[in-house]
Task: inverse folding
């Protein structure tokens, strides 16, 4: 029987991966959800977005945050109904077909592996400033070995690392918000309340018009990437259904406060034209402005932790996604071998791929490495599209066959799902309009079409495989 004629899978049966252990606790999932998107993109990358959008960066992050909330609600609904380490790849396969699961899964694996390399480069750059005598590639190798080892051990080790990493990041942002609010209302010693001067001066709330807002919107959309890891990790938690439901519910509004609140504090306290926002990063620039001693070094430590956390989480997510794909007949069998409850070959392969990306940044920075960067530019949007399309189709099937599994429900279904899809389409159009993002759209589109073609050919020629990962 071909994959195209295989009967629809039974959505009523559990889909958690039995060979994997269930070593993650609820506190691990909650912190993975909260800390997963708090990375260097927020601490440093948001500076260029502020330079482009001005105070309207608040609006940009609010719009993109609303879109991410909708995506996470949809993903939470499907993952609570059918927890699986393949997450949205499994949902896409159930809803659309094996080719969709193949495309979404391997595109996400590619994104995470390249991201591991980028995070390794970032961490090495920071530590090299403290230890200039050590080559950067050697520092990357040390961090790779550390987190490869962490992920080769029991999953609870990954959970503990992420718990404390996320706690530090969340603590740093919370403290920043408290200090910022005190400064805004004029309570902080040696500071005067700025009022609305910085929000309305220097060209107004949208100093660069709609074009500046668009650049800020595009930057903010991609800064939110990373939340998906919690639904992958949920399959290895003690109580997968309850765990992912609670993590998704509590994380969404808190993350919105962290992102939108941080941007509001920065552009209220500082003129958006301040050069340090782009060069030092918005957090360091704001703390320096307030006269906080040692602000630069404090934030360097926080950024280092954010990068290490992201590297750890991405090795984990890549290995679980690869293992899930292989268990469904969607990749080389060797990657699916599980030992001690861990897909160790997938961990080693994902880590090695990330380290190769680092070496390419030194050996071929202008061609191959740049191609890798362009290719991953819009993959997260492709993943979100598959999530929304899958939820649109699966919701009715679950309501019909197993309504009791709808522990988390998408708001105003199907209208908000369609609005989310329209929002993603709008972002694709905006990327095509901008010179800086158009090439990323082309490269990502090429990779997606290639994976879809391979997946479709496999679907037409392979025999049916149970969807259980």
Result:
């Amino acid at each position: 029987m071909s994959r195209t004629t295989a009967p629809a899978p039974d959505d009523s049966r559990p889909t958690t991966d039995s060979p994997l252990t269930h070593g993650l606790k609820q506190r691990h999932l909650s912190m993975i959800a909260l800390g997963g998107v708090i990375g260097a993109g927020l601490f440093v990358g948001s500076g260029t977005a502020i330079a482009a959008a001005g105070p309207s960066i608040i609006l940009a992050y609010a719009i993109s945050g609303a879109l991410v909330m909708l995506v996470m609600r949809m993903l939470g609904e499907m993952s609570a109904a059918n927890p699986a380490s393949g997450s949205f790849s499994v949902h896409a396969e159930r809803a659309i077909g094996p080719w969709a699961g193949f495309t979404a899964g391997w595109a996400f694996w590619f994104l995470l592996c390249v991201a591991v390399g980028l995070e390794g480069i970032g961490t090495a750059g920071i530590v090299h400033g403290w230890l200039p005598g050590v080559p950067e590639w050697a520092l990357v190798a040390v961090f790779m070995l550390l987190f490869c080892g962490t992920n080769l051990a029991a999953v609870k080790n990954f959970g503990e690392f992420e718990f404390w990493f996320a706690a530090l990041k969340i603590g740093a942002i919370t403290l920043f918000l408290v200090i910022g609010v005190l400064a805004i209302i004029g309570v902080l010693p040696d500071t005067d309340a700025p009022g609305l001067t910085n929000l309305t001066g220097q060209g107004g709330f949208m100093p660069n018009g709609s074009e500046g807002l668009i650049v800020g919107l595009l930057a903010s959309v991609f800064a939110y990437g990373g939340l998906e890891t919690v639904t992958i990790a949920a399959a290895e938690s003690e109580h997968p259904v309850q765990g992912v439901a609670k993590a998704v519910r509590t994380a969404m509004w808190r993350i919105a406060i962290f992102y939108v609140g941080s941007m509001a504090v920065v552009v209220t306290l500082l003129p958006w034209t301040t050069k340090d926002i782009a060069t030092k990063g918005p957090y360091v620039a704001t703390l320096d402005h307030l006269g906080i001693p040692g602000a630069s070094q404090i934030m360097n430590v926080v950024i280092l932790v954010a990068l290490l956390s992201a590297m750890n989480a991405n090795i984990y997510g890549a290995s679980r996604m690869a293992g899930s794909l292989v268990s469904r007949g969607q990749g080389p069998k060797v990657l699916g071998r599980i030992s001690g409850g861990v897909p160790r070959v997938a961990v080693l392969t994902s880590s090695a791929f990330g380290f190769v990306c680092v070496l390419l940044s030194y050996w071929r920075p202008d061609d191959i490495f740049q191609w890798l960067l362009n290719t991953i530019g819009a993959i997260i949007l492709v993943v979100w599209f598959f999530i929304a399309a899958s939820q649109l189709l699966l919701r009715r099937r679950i309501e019909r066959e197993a309504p009791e599994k709808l522990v988390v429900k998408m708001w105003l279904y199907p209208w908000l799902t369609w609005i989310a899809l329209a929002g993603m389409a709008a972002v694709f159009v905006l990327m095509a309009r901008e010179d800086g993002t158009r090439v990323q759209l082309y490269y990502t589109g090429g990779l997606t079409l290639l994976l879809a073609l391979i997946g479709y050919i496999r679907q037409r020629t392979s025999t049916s495989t149970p969807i259980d990962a």
In short: The two ends are 21 Å apart (CA to CA). Confidence is low (pLDDT under 50) at residues 1-18.
